[in-house]
From TrEMBL:
Any one of the GO CC terms: cytosol
UniProt binding sites for L-tryptophan: D204
Name of the featured protein: Tryptophan--tRNA ligase
Natural source organism: Aquifex aeolicus
Gene transcribed to yield this protein: trpS
MF terms (GO), sorted A to Z: ATP binding; tryptophan-tRNA ligase activity
Lineage of origin: Bacteria, Pseudomonadati, Aquificota, Aquificia, Aquificales
Gene3D superfamilies referenced in this protein's UniProt entry, alphabetically: HUPs, Tyrosyl-Transfer RNA Synthetase
Assigned EC number: 6.1.1.2
Record-stated family: Belongs to the class-I aminoacyl-tRNA synthetase family.
SUPFAM superfamilies: Nucleotidylyl transferase (SSF52374)
Length: 395
């Protein structure tokens, strides 16, 4: 089977990436022809305002992919924007994709909702700002002709500044927590590129005639859309594309150090590039069962992220069972429990860390691997595009 998948370059990879994606990709590489790409154009569908970190993030992903076991000898590893034909196919697909298919995409609706929620937050904030503006107006030592109008104008300006600060990611993490918004919410997604990103995704997959796409359940609607676009193209111009299937894989959930989903934007991730000291600091600061205040208090491992880490990283099952029992019986303190999990994590992380250091020593080679992979992928894409242009009478 030909398998295609991509990953946005968000920087160094963490444990969540490994268990959610990479481990599965490494397995797939053993049995199938695989095309794995760094989706830098996709990164721009949301984070288009700040591209200063883009190249650094791509480099970190390249290093991590190689260190975590993706093998350029077994499959194609490449960078999306180095194969410009993705953009051409995206354009051609956009001609045949009804707008309604995109507007009903659940991710699009979610993101739009986030945007509205953000505007709501700004409105609430505007309420708070009114008092500040009034106080300021009362301090003005001369008579204001139209007090209300000036007040509204000042309020508008301040609210706009606040929204801009939200979108630019300039607000303090503490304030964001208080407002209950995450960095993901800041993206201004009211763009053509964001609406059309599932079409780009369809082009990414179909240009390699992908038959299988490893995805999580939340991505299923996108694969369905890819299948619909393939069907529509084949109906209009003749059979060129296969209809790819989703390869659903059960992946363990890896909580972040605060118990929420592990994510760079929540600042709760453990990265493969972290030093032992960083891992220790992060684990020692982890949230545990809030009812277990002293060593002798009985705990609830089922709600504790530290225990989830024991399940994932402490290889000895009997030891994990014992930790669970001792926690429940109030025989184990959280500090001791965390020290044990640090050791387990270190046994898991240190081989990757060493490999990462090794890969990083020759960055030129890393670049070459991905350049070479992009060239090979491009050759494949060019052949598909020949078929597409011919089917559409474009040559
Ligand atoms: S003893 Fe361990 S499993 Fe139990 S609450 Fe504390 S950290 Fe969590």
């Amino acid at each position: 089977m030909r398998v295609v998948s991509g990953m946005r370059p968000t920087g160094k990879l963490h444990l969540g990436h490994y268990f959610g994606v990479i481990r599965n990709w490494v397995e797939l590489q053993r049995e199938h022809q695989t095309f794995f790409f760094i989706a830098d154009w996709h990164a721009l569908t949301t984070a288009y305002k700040r591209t200063s970190d883009l190249q650094r993030n791509i480099r970190e992903v390249m290093i991590d992919w190689l260190a975590l076991g993706l093998d350029p000898e077994r499959g194609y590893l490449f960078i999306q924007s180095k194969v410009k034909e993705h953009a051409e196919l995206h354009l051609l697909f956009s001609m045949i994709t009804p707008k309604s298919w995109l507007e009903w995409n659940p991710t699009y609706k979610d993101m739009k909702f986030n945007l509205l929620r953000l505007q709501d937050v700004a409105l609430q904030f505007r309420g708070g700002l009114r008092d500040v503006v009034r106080e300021f107006m009362n301090m003005i030592p001369y008579r204001v002709e139209d007090f209300e109008r000036l007040e509204e104008r000042l309020l508008d300006d301040l609210s706009d500044t606040f929204i801009a600060a939200l979108f630019e990611g300039e607000l303090e993490p503490e304030l964001l927590k208080e407002l209950n918004v995450s960095r993901r919410d800041f993206y201004d997604t009211d763009t053509y590129g964001f609406l059309g990103y599932p079409v780009l995704q369809a082009a990414d997959i179909l240009i390699y005639k992908g038959e299988g796409v490893p995805v999580g359940e939340d991505q299923l609607p996108h694969i369905e859309l890819t299948r619909e676009i393939a069907r529509r193209f084949n109906n209009l111009y003749g059979d060129v594309f296969p209809e790819p299937s989703a390869l659903l894989t059960e992946t363990p959930k890896v909580p972040g150090t605060d118990g929420r989903k592990m994510s760079k934007s929540y600042n709760n991730a453990i990265f493969f590039a972290d030093t032992r000291e960083e891992v220790e600091r992060k684990v020692m600061g982890m949230f545990t069962d809030p009812q277990k205040l002293r060593r002798n208090d009985p705990g609830r491992p089922n709600i504790c992220a530290v225990f989830t880490y024991h399940r994932l990283f402490t290889g000895d099952r009997e030891k994990v069972d014992q930790i669970e029992k001792d926690c429940r019986a109030g025989k184990l303190g959280c500090v001791e429990c965390k020290r044990m999990v640090i050791e387990s994590l270190e046994s898991f992380l240190s081989p990757f860390r060493e490999r990462r250091d090794e890969v990083k020593k020759d960055l030129r080679k890393v670049e070459e691997i991905f350049q070479e992979g992009s060239l090979r992928a491009r050759n494949f894409a060019l052949e598909t595009m020949e078929e597409v242009r011919s089917a559409m009478n474009l040559k």
